[in-house]
Target: Pyridoxal phosphate homeostasis protein
Amino acid sequence: MSLSDITTRVRAAAIDSGRSADSVTLIAVSKVQPDARVEAVLSEGHRCFGENRVQEAAGKWPEFRKTFDGVDLHLIGPLQSNKVRQALDLFQSIHSVDRPKLARTIARVAQEEGHCPDLFIQVNTGEEDQKAGVLPADADGFIAECRDLDLPLKGLMCIPPVEEEPSLHFALLAKIAKRNDLTGLSMGMSSDFESAIALGATHVRVGSAIFGTRQTG
Ligand SMILES: *Cc1c(COP(=O)(O)O)cnc(C)c1O
Model:
Protein backbone atom coordinates (compact mmCIF):
# COMPACT_ATOMS: atom_id res chain seq x y z
CA MET A 1 0.00 0.00 0.00
CA SER A 2 0.97 3.61 -0.40
CA LEU A 3 -0.43 7.04 0.22
CA SER A 4 -1.97 7.24 -3.25
CA ASP A 5 -3.63 3.80 -2.96
CA ILE A 6 -5.18 4.74 0.36
CA THR A 7 -6.25 8.17 -0.89
CA THR A 8 -7.95 6.50 -3.85
CA ARG A 9 -9.75 4.01 -1.61
CA VAL A 10 -10.90 6.73 0.80
CA ARG A 11 -12.33 8.80 -2.05
CA ALA A 12 -14.04 5.79 -3.61
CA ALA A 13 -15.60 4.80 -0.29
CA ALA A 14 -16.92 8.35 0.18
CA ILE A 15 -18.54 8.28 -3.26
CA ASP A 16 -19.99 4.81 -2.56
CA SER A 17 -21.64 6.21 0.55
CA GLY A 18 -23.27 9.00 -1.44
CA ARG A 19 -20.91 11.77 -0.39
CA SER A 20 -18.37 13.83 -2.30
CA ALA A 21 -14.91 12.34 -2.79
CA ASP A 22 -13.29 14.99 -0.60
CA SER A 23 -15.75 14.72 2.28
CA VAL A 24 -13.50 12.39 4.27
CA THR A 25 -10.24 13.64 5.79
CA LEU A 26 -7.40 11.13 5.66
CA ILE A 27 -5.24 11.46 8.77
CA ALA A 28 -1.90 9.74 8.12
CA VAL A 29 -0.89 8.33 11.51
CA SER A 30 2.88 8.84 11.69
CA LYS A 31 3.52 7.73 15.30
CA VAL A 32 6.74 5.73 15.74
CA GLN A 33 7.49 5.87 12.01
CA PRO A 34 11.02 6.71 10.87
CA ASP A 35 11.42 10.35 9.79
CA ALA A 36 12.33 9.29 6.25
CA ARG A 37 8.94 7.62 5.74
CA VAL A 38 7.10 10.66 7.08
CA GLU A 39 9.14 12.97 4.86
CA ALA A 40 8.33 10.83 1.84
CA VAL A 41 4.60 11.26 2.50
CA LEU A 42 5.06 15.01 3.07
CA SER A 43 6.96 15.20 -0.22
CA GLU A 44 4.02 13.59 -1.99
CA GLY A 45 2.03 16.60 -0.87
CA HIS A 46 0.06 15.13 2.04
CA ARG A 47 -0.31 17.53 4.98
CA CYS A 48 -2.71 15.91 7.46
CA PHE A 49 -1.05 13.74 10.12
CA GLY A 50 -1.91 12.08 13.42
CA GLU A 51 0.25 11.46 16.47
CA ASN A 52 -0.72 9.72 19.70
CA ARG A 53 1.86 11.24 22.04
CA VAL A 54 2.41 14.95 22.67
CA GLN A 55 6.08 14.41 23.53
CA GLU A 56 6.83 12.46 20.37
CA ALA A 57 5.03 15.03 18.21
CA ALA A 58 6.95 17.86 19.88
CA GLY A 59 10.19 16.08 19.02
CA LYS A 60 9.66 15.95 15.28
CA TRP A 61 6.90 18.21 13.91
CA PRO A 62 8.46 21.65 14.60
CA GLU A 63 11.40 20.51 12.45
CA PHE A 64 9.19 19.13 9.62
CA ARG A 65 7.22 22.38 9.70
CA LYS A 66 10.36 24.36 8.84
CA THR A 67 10.45 22.54 5.50
CA PHE A 68 6.77 21.86 4.80
CA ASP A 69 4.01 24.49 4.94
CA GLY A 70 0.44 23.92 6.01
CA VAL A 71 0.85 20.83 8.19
CA ASP A 72 -2.44 19.91 9.87
CA LEU A 73 -1.66 17.89 12.99
CA HIS A 74 -4.17 15.78 14.94
CA LEU A 75 -3.65 14.42 18.46
CA ILE A 76 -5.29 10.98 18.54
CA GLY A 77 -3.87 9.68 21.84
CA PRO A 78 -4.38 10.46 25.52
CA LEU A 79 -3.82 14.00 26.77
CA GLN A 80 -2.76 14.81 30.33
CA SER A 81 -3.91 18.12 31.75
CA ASN A 82 -0.33 19.28 32.31
CA LYS A 83 0.41 18.88 28.57
CA VAL A 84 -2.56 20.91 27.34
CA ARG A 85 -0.60 24.10 26.66
CA GLN A 86 1.98 22.20 24.64
CA ALA A 87 -0.79 20.36 22.78
CA LEU A 88 -2.48 23.66 21.86
CA ASP A 89 0.81 24.82 20.40
CA LEU A 90 1.29 21.76 18.23
CA PHE A 91 -2.11 20.43 17.19
CA GLN A 92 -4.96 21.77 15.05
CA SER A 93 -7.30 19.03 16.31
CA ILE A 94 -7.56 16.91 19.46
CA HIS A 95 -9.53 13.66 19.19
CA SER A 96 -9.12 12.45 22.77
CA VAL A 97 -11.20 14.75 24.96
CA ASP A 98 -12.50 12.23 27.50
CA ARG A 99 -13.15 13.81 30.91
CA PRO A 100 -14.53 16.97 32.49
CA LYS A 101 -11.25 18.03 34.10
CA LEU A 102 -9.47 17.89 30.74
CA ALA A 103 -12.29 19.82 29.05
CA ARG A 104 -12.08 22.54 31.71
CA THR A 105 -8.31 22.78 31.39
CA ILE A 106 -8.54 23.05 27.60
CA ALA A 107 -11.16 25.80 27.95
CA ARG A 108 -8.99 27.78 30.39
CA VAL A 109 -5.72 27.42 28.46
CA ALA A 110 -7.45 28.15 25.12
CA GLN A 111 -8.79 31.37 26.64
CA GLU A 112 -5.29 32.37 27.73
CA GLU A 113 -3.70 31.44 24.41
CA GLY A 114 -6.46 32.95 22.28
CA HIS A 115 -6.99 29.85 20.14
CA CYS A 116 -8.34 26.35 20.48
CA PRO A 117 -7.99 23.26 18.28
CA ASP A 118 -11.03 21.50 16.87
CA LEU A 119 -12.13 18.99 19.47
CA PHE A 120 -13.50 15.45 19.29
CA ILE A 121 -14.84 13.61 22.31
CA GLN A 122 -13.53 10.06 22.62
CA VAL A 123 -16.27 7.54 23.37
CA ASN A 124 -15.39 4.14 24.83
CA THR A 125 -17.98 2.34 22.71
CA GLY A 126 -16.77 -1.10 23.81
CA GLU A 127 -16.90 -0.09 27.50
CA GLU A 128 -13.40 -1.51 27.94
CA ASP A 129 -11.74 -0.94 31.33
CA GLN A 130 -8.32 -0.28 29.86
CA LYS A 131 -9.52 2.14 27.20
CA ALA A 132 -9.94 5.90 27.44
CA GLY A 133 -13.16 7.66 26.53
CA VAL A 134 -16.50 8.45 28.10
CA LEU A 135 -18.99 5.62 28.35
CA PRO A 136 -21.81 5.74 25.78
CA ALA A 137 -24.32 6.38 28.57
CA ASP A 138 -22.34 9.43 29.72
CA ALA A 139 -21.73 10.88 26.27
CA ASP A 140 -24.77 13.18 26.01
CA GLY A 141 -24.02 14.73 29.41
CA PHE A 142 -20.35 15.25 28.62
CA ILE A 143 -21.15 16.78 25.22
CA ALA A 144 -23.46 19.25 26.98
CA GLU A 145 -20.72 20.09 29.50
CA CYS A 146 -18.25 20.81 26.69
CA ARG A 147 -20.81 23.03 24.99
CA ASP A 148 -21.36 24.92 28.24
CA LEU A 149 -17.62 25.61 28.25
CA ASP A 150 -17.95 27.04 24.70
CA LEU A 151 -15.44 24.54 23.37
CA PRO A 152 -15.23 24.14 19.58
CA LEU A 153 -16.70 20.66 19.49
CA LYS A 154 -16.38 19.05 16.10
CA GLY A 155 -17.49 15.50 16.73
CA LEU A 156 -16.83 12.11 18.30
CA MET A 157 -14.05 9.56 18.09
CA CYS A 158 -13.85 5.84 18.91
CA ILE A 159 -11.40 2.95 18.84
CA PRO A 160 -13.41 -0.30 18.68
CA PRO A 161 -12.27 -3.34 20.68
CA VAL A 162 -9.84 -5.39 18.59
CA GLU A 163 -11.78 -8.62 18.81
CA GLU A 164 -15.19 -7.22 17.88
CA GLU A 165 -16.92 -6.34 14.63
CA PRO A 166 -16.01 -2.64 14.27
CA SER A 167 -19.11 -1.66 12.30
CA LEU A 168 -21.33 -2.07 15.38
CA HIS A 169 -19.15 0.47 17.17
CA PHE A 170 -19.09 2.83 14.21
CA ALA A 171 -22.89 2.70 14.04
CA LEU A 172 -23.18 3.41 17.77
CA LEU A 173 -20.81 6.39 17.53
CA ALA A 174 -22.77 7.75 14.55
CA LYS A 175 -26.02 7.42 16.48
CA ILE A 176 -24.68 9.33 19.50
CA ALA A 177 -23.31 12.06 17.21
CA LYS A 178 -26.57 12.40 15.32
CA ARG A 179 -28.78 12.81 18.38
CA ASN A 180 -26.38 15.51 19.61
CA ASP A 181 -26.18 17.37 16.27
CA LEU A 182 -22.48 16.68 15.84
CA THR A 183 -21.23 16.19 12.30
CA GLY A 184 -17.65 14.99 12.83
CA LEU A 185 -16.95 11.26 13.15
CA SER A 186 -13.34 10.19 13.70
CA MET A 187 -13.43 6.45 13.16
CA GLY A 188 -11.73 3.81 11.03
CA MET A 189 -8.10 2.67 10.91
CA SER A 190 -5.99 0.67 8.42
CA SER A 191 -8.08 -2.48 8.60
CA ASP A 192 -11.55 -1.00 8.62
CA PHE A 193 -11.62 2.57 7.25
CA GLU A 194 -13.90 1.67 4.36
CA SER A 195 -16.60 0.29 6.62
CA ALA A 196 -16.20 3.36 8.85
CA ILE A 197 -16.76 5.62 5.84
CA ALA A 198 -19.84 3.61 4.88
CA LEU A 199 -21.19 4.40 8.37
CA GLY A 200 -20.44 8.11 8.11
CA ALA A 201 -16.79 8.66 9.11
CA THR A 202 -15.57 12.18 8.30
CA HIS A 203 -12.03 11.52 9.57
CA VAL A 204 -10.19 8.22 9.18
CA ARG A 205 -6.91 7.54 11.02
CA VAL A 206 -4.69 5.34 8.91
CA GLY A 207 -1.15 4.42 9.94
CA SER A 208 0.36 1.10 8.90
CA ALA A 209 -1.49 0.88 5.57
CA ILE A 210 0.28 4.08 4.48
CA PHE A 211 3.67 3.86 6.20
CA GLY A 212 4.16 0.15 6.64
CA THR A 213 4.36 -1.83 9.87
CA ARG A 214 5.44 0.16 12.91
CA GLN A 215 8.80 -0.86 14.43
CA THR A 216 7.53 -0.44 17.99
CA GLY A 217 4.49 0.91 19.83
C1 LIG B 1 -2.11 3.97 15.87
C2 LIG B 1 -3.48 4.49 15.79
C3 LIG B 1 -4.18 4.48 14.57
C4 LIG B 1 -3.63 3.89 13.28
O1 LIG B 1 -3.60 2.51 13.34
P1 LIG B 1 -3.28 1.63 12.03
O2 LIG B 1 -3.89 0.31 12.34
O3 LIG B 1 -1.81 1.60 11.90
O4 LIG B 1 -3.94 2.29 10.88
C5 LIG B 1 -5.45 5.03 14.56
N1 LIG B 1 -6.01 5.56 15.67
C6 LIG B 1 -5.35 5.60 16.84
C7 LIG B 1 -6.02 6.20 18.03
C8 LIG B 1 -4.08 5.06 16.95
O5 LIG B 1 -3.44 5.11 18.14
About this structure: The longest strand covers residues 25-29. The chain has a mean pLDDT of 97. The longest helix spans residues 3-16. The pocket of pyridoxal-5'-phosphate is lined by residues 29, 31, 52, 76-77, 159, 189-190, 205-209 (CB under 6 Å).
